[in-house]
Design brief:
Layout lengths: L1 H16 L5 E4 L24 E2 L7 H8 L15 E3 L1
Parallel strand pairs: 1-2
Antiparallel strand pairs: 1-3
């Protein structure tokens, strides 16, 4: 999971460096900070935090189907899905 988030982070940095406005979403919870400030205080790194697709109300399996991306890779597999909205 961490490797996927690192690749997404690199991709988003390149987009933003080129002034491309985007909303990156990832699998699972944000793990930017060892201790999250939410809900007691605002996020310390809102430009670096990745919120889960589910938190935005997306059904990941439906998004994968609509995009033509395989969702289930069989037993004993884990798939980490990310997306970027432009």
């Amino acid at each position: 999971e961490q490797a996927v988030k690192e690749k997404l982070s690199q991709f988003v940095k390149e987009l933003r460096k080129n002034n491309i406005i985007c909303l990156p979403m990832t699998a699972g919870t944000c793990n930017k900070c060892a201790v999250c400030t939410c809900p007691d205080a605002p996020c310390r790194f809102p430009e670096e935090a990745f919120i889960s697709m589910e938190a935005y109300g997306l059904i990941v399996s439906d998004v994968c189907t609509a995009a033509g991306v395989k969702y289930n890779y069989g037993p004993r597999t884990i798939t980490f899905t990310t997306c970027v909205l432009f």
